[in-house]
Amino acid sequence: MEKHYNYYKSSSCSLPSVCAIFTGLLLSSTAVPMVAGDYRDEQERDRIIKLPGQPENVDFSQYSGYITVDSTLRRNLFYWLVEAPASRDPMSKPLVLWLTGGPGCSAVAYGAFEAVGPFRVRPDGKTLTISPYAWNREANLLFHDSPAGVGFSYSSTEDDVVNIGDKRTATDSYTFLTKWFERFPQYKHRPFYIAGESYAGHYIPNLSQIITRKNKGIKNPIINFKGFLLGNALIDNYYDSIGRFEFWWNHGLISDSSYEALKKACPNDSFLFPGKECSQAYSHSRLEIGNINQYDLYASPCPEVGTLGHNFSPLQRTFLGNDGQCIVKYTKVYLNHSEVQKAFHGNSEAIDEPYTTCSGRINVFWKDSPISMLPIFKELIAAGIRIWLFSGDTDTVIPLSSTRYSIKALNLKTITNFYPWYDDKQQLGGWSQGYEGLTFVIVKGAGHE
């Protein structure tokens, strides 16, 4: 039987209650009547009856399966749809697509099980608990493993898996969406948003640009795209770099000499593939930084998973500290169970053993990665697309200072002056500032995700 290829490398992260103000971005929506057709059979085929270890008090529908984006190469992209609870009227809620960065990390493993999804994996690696911070209280969530070779997504050949970059990822995701809406026509014309973090700072603007251009001149588009949310996102190589080095130095993580070396060698290099001089400056700085959780500065690293000290790529996740719990380890164990993969309708012949949460091979072979997304931001803002950027203030990989430099470069007019925001218990949640076409939110005590 023909072998499929899917490569991974381990990972990590965590997202506090951004959902407390998440609803402010979502517009009200109107239910779309169901239309009879073959799609009903496809939906029922993809319906998840019950995930192994799932709690009994679940009142929302789930679907998962594959969308073929290239029939010749048998390139199939995986999705997991988690609808809003029946008690909260899912037909009235918008649809949010979640993309996780890397490049090469799984939206199911990270976006769903560690960030905004309805479940968390318990330490036994077999049972699930309900997350009190799940975004599906306010929206229907569509988690999409992209590109092929990530998570449960796959292609029929190794050459196709490693022939990847920004451009193909965006076109494949657009093809995925157009076909997915045919399978779930009840979501056509529904207000649609995209959310994600990290290297999704490339995925999301690229995909948003395609959708916006395709929708131009259409009064009632099938993909009724309204805006996107990005957290601690890679946006611009230069501004991300100077903001990162400044954050490290200001927080006492590196010496004066390393700070100067990084500023000299790295700002104009590729973030994913830096040159020799920049790599050397990074390596020396990592020795000074030591064994910390770079995705959440004040949390402990996860020793069972490893540390970032011996890995260069700033976006490859190798640990997670969250109150001493290595959540990604539990998630990885859970997703490796054959009965779990079967419940998700995963193609067992295409999923490598063992299942891993990030693809190091995809990260290494990534081809095109533009130096800046800011020109696309400007195009989307001019087109009326709503943009919401949020930064956890303990992330050292793409810290809030990086995002602020990128926003400043957009030269947008301030609409709402900088102010503190509070959660529903009147505790300080962070700070925010409104610009023309863009909102920036800082989340106090939050890390990379």
Automatic annotation (TrEMBL):
UniProt-listed Pfam families: Peptidase_S10
UniProt keyword Secreted present: yes
Biological process annotations from GO: proteolysis
PROSITE patterns tied to this protein: CARBOXYPEPT_SER_SER
Key words of the record: Carboxypeptidase, Disulfide bond, Glycoprotein, Hydrolase, Protease, Secreted, Signal
SUPFAM superfamilies, A to Z: alpha/beta-Hydrolases
Enzyme Commission code: 3.4.16.-
UniProt-recorded Gene Ontology molecular function terms: serine-type carboxypeptidase activity
Location in or out of the cell: Secreted
Gene3D superfamilies: 3.40.50.11320, 6.10.250.940, alpha/beta hydrolase
Broad class of the protein's primary localization: secreted
GO cellular component, one term: extracellular region
UniProt-listed InterPro entries: AB_hydrolase_fold (IPR029058), Peptidase_S10 (IPR001563), Ser_caboxypep_ser_AS (IPR018202)
Hydrolase as UniProt keyword: yes
Family in the record: Belongs to the peptidase S10 family.
PANTHER family the record matches: SERINE CARBOXYPEPTIDASE-LIKE 28, SERINE PROTEASE FAMILY S10 SERINE CARBOXYPEPTIDASE
Name recorded for this polypeptide: Carboxypeptidase
Species of the source: Davidia involucrata
Organismal lineage: Eukaryota, Viridiplantae, Streptophyta, Embryophyta, Tracheophyta
